[in-house]
Amino acid sequence: MAGGPVSGLSRAAGLLCAVLAFGAQAAPCPEAVEGLISPQHLVMATNPTLPPLQYVTVDGQIAGMRIELGNEIARRLCLKPVTLSTSFAQLTLGLLEKRWDVINTGMFYTAQRARLMEMIPYEIQAISVSLNDESVLHPAGLEDLSGSSIGVEMGGIEEHHAREADQALRDAGRPGFDIKTFQNVGIAFAALRARQVTAVFSIDAVARRNALQGGVKPILKGLYPTPVALALRDPALAQRLADVLENMREDGTLERLMAPYGVSPFPGRITVSGPSHPSDMH
């Protein structure tokens, strides 16, 4: 039996949706993207040791907020996203040797790095101090952890700020920190759960994730807020990515992508800062 007017309208609406979807898929891609190491591919490198921002799933896939971000940038440029896993120590060298186009690992912006690479600050991250759930300490500030052992990931900004705070305590005539470095932040939190260290310095989102897994709790949050950036070698490609990120900021995509992870977008316009893009950022 033939459908009535309602079913006819439903079929018409479905046909219209299909046409619109096809039109969206068939929309012309932006002009050719220059500066890629592999045509039609956006090759990104990450150090996947910071769940939920970038990590390896149980089935071996690289996942997390920053991977979603990279995939969306590639989609908007009509490029195929390729994400490679590497150690943090290899990221900058690999970029300069043209082994990948982009460092997408939550690299903190510094003026020193911006003298080496084109950097696009797009996110703000701060540091949390986490304690074991069974800790009897109730620090109101870093000075209340004077004399304590602090676990940090080796070579990151967390270690930098831990050593900075340690020196400030010593300069004030107080016991400093006993800073213990680990290969990655996951091992640092394992040490905290085993009560091998008193506290761990990590970025806020990682502290929040570990608290959800149990055994630890962030006590101090939002310390040392710092821009996080993508890093690139090619100035023209960096500008293209900055334009895409600015469009994502303007249309709300960036905030929607970050919100579930407790991450904040960079305030204000997203631009490039680097050797070919002078900036007043410090």
TrEMBL record:
It comes from Gluconobacter albidus. InterPro entries: Solute-binding_3/MltF_N. Gene3D superfamilies: Periplasmic binding protein-like II (3.40.190.10). Keywords: Signal. Residues 41-265 form the Solute-binding protein family 3/N-terminal domain. Residues 1-26 form the signal peptide. The keyword Signal applies. This is Amino acid ABC transporter. SUPFAM superfamilies: Periplasmic binding protein-like II. The keyword Transferase does not apply.
